[in-house]
Amino acid sequence: MRILVTGATGFIGSALIDGLLLRGHALVVCIHARNERRWSDRVSYIAVDFMCDTDEAVWIPRLDGVDAVVNAVGILRESADADFKRLHTDAPVALFRACEMVGVERCIQISALGANAEALSAYHRSKHSADEALRVTSLAWTIVQPSLVIGMQSGSTRLFATLASMPLMPLVGRGHQLVQPVRIADLVELIIGLLEKGVGVHETVVAVGPRALMLRELLQGLRENMGLPRTLFLNVPIPVIRLAAKFGDCVGHGALSGETLSMLMQGNTAPTEQTCSVLGRPPRYALGFAANNDSVALRTRALDSWLRPTMHFVLAMMWITAGIVSWVYAKELGLELLGKLGIPDVLTLPVFIASCGFNLVLGVLSLFHPSRRLWMVQLFVVLFYTLALTLVSPTLWHDPFGALVKNLPIMVVLIGLMQFEPER
Q1: Of the ranges 36-45, 78-87, 315-324, 343-352, the best mean pLDDT one
Q2: In whole angstroms, what is the distance from residue 144 CA to residue 112 CA?
Q3: Is 14 helix (H, G, I), strand (E, B) or coil?
Q4: Is the pTM of this model over 0.90?
């Protein structure tokens, strides 16, 4: 078959294309930018913009020679460049109408479990609007409604893996929210089965894993999958989670938002009969998806997603606190130490003020502009402070509070950050 796939560079769309190519199908892939991923020679590429392509006339020439269409476009967060109504409803509806006009044989809409008119989230309601528009067409349509999809490239999987990797696993309330995760490999196999077997016509097919899991079970399973030792849960009150979700909305990135929280609170479960019928077998346990190498990669990415920002924050607080405390509580001692370094009395105060201000600048930069170069500067500053204080007051090395000894782990942290900070 010659199949047109939208949402090609998304998590589900890209996995689906890989699966369809393995089955020998010819593909027409809709991409937004010219520098996006390229597949084999059996793939034709057309540039689309779902924010603008909301008229069926735009889609008609793109469907020349196409036997089937799979709409896999989806976003979890709205932005200035992408909103639910245009991406999930208006552009897909224009595509469905164009399919009717040119006589495309098959159309599969990848919706979402829980998509209905009364859904709490705008994400689900916008998906439902496109589903309803497809149902009234004359096409041989199927609407696939997957539950939470688990896979290495999934944003939601990365979010849950991050939570699972923390020293205390944070839960939404008691963590009793229900999900029924499905492996990306099973979802791809199900969609290909619908296309090749010609089943599921004029049906809404749910794609779910073998059983429902509470959020706490999902996190514990991911933690075990990543090879991390067991730990305790941290029950975070739901009002606090809602506040964090609002912060996520304001920041404009990350997987936690008001939309994703409302979807989690709504629950995401369904019977497995339809999934089993199309696959011809029971779906596989979703949390067994990662091979050893994948488990290591998932663990590394999960730990990095919270550990490195935490180190940035701690370093920032160290420099900011040092600048403030030195000025408020240790001004006389600072001036005395500068005098011992041989700085003239007339310059000790300006140098002390500049030193406190420099500490504050380093702290602010650690929060807002972390970089390899910044860590290198901080390493040299800590080294300079250590050598200078050793010269004028070597007794600080055996100070009961470890005044200089503490600089050693700080320098190790800075060296580590220099190695792992990505290029900018």
Answers
A1: 315-324
A2: 7
A3: helix
A4: no
Could you identify the residue written with the tokens 């520098």? 35
CB atoms within 10 A of CB 419: 8
- Report the range of poorest mean pLDDT among 62-66, 106-110, 344-348, 353-357: 344-348
Structure tokens given for 18: 């890989």
Residue 370 confidence (pLDDT): 92
SS3 416: helix
CA geometry: angle 213, 267, 215, nearest 5 deg: 35
Sign of the C-alpha dihedral computed for residues 274, 277, 282 and 284 taken in this order: negative
Cβ atoms 80, 116 nearer than 8 A? no
pLDDT surpasses 90 at 266: no
CA distance 17 to 184: 12
Instruction: Yes or no: say if 305 and 253 are a contact pair by the CB < 8 Å rule.
Output: no
Cβ-based burial of 91 (10 A; exposed 0-12, middle 13-18, buried ≥19):
buried
Output the pLDDT for position 286: 86
For 155, the token pair is 């944003």
Q: Whole-angstrom distance between the N-terminal and C-terminal Cα of the chain?
A: 43
Contact criterion met (CB below 8 Å) for 286 and 150: yes
Residues in the chain: 424
Q: How far is CA 100 from CA 95, 206, 255, 267, 383, in A?
A: 9, 24, 36, 35, 71
Query: Could you give all domains of the chain from N- to C-terminal order, each with its CATH number?
Result: 2-150+181-211+269-290 (3.40.50.720), 306-420 (no CATH)
* CA proximity to 108, closest of 130, 73, 141, 75: 141
Q: Which amino acid is at 131?
A: D
CB count, 10 Å around CB of 147? Answer: 26
Residue carrying the six token digits 């050598």: 387
d(CA 74, CA 277) in angstroms, rounded, equals 26
Number of other CB atoms surrounding residue 265 within 10 Å? 15
Q: Is residue 38 helix, strand or coil? A: coil
Angle at which helices 345-368 and 331-340 pack, to 10 degrees? 110
pLDDT digits (tens, 9 = 90+) for 363-383: 999 999 999 999 999 999 999
Higher pLDDT, 343 or 422: 343
Closest CA to 87 of 75, 99, 95: 75
Q: What is the mean pLDDT of residues 418-423?
A: 77
Rounded to whole angstroms, what are the CA distances from 161 to 64, 153, 174, 256, 259?
42, 12, 18, 13, 19
Instruction: Tell me the two tokens of residue 304.
Output: 């990095």
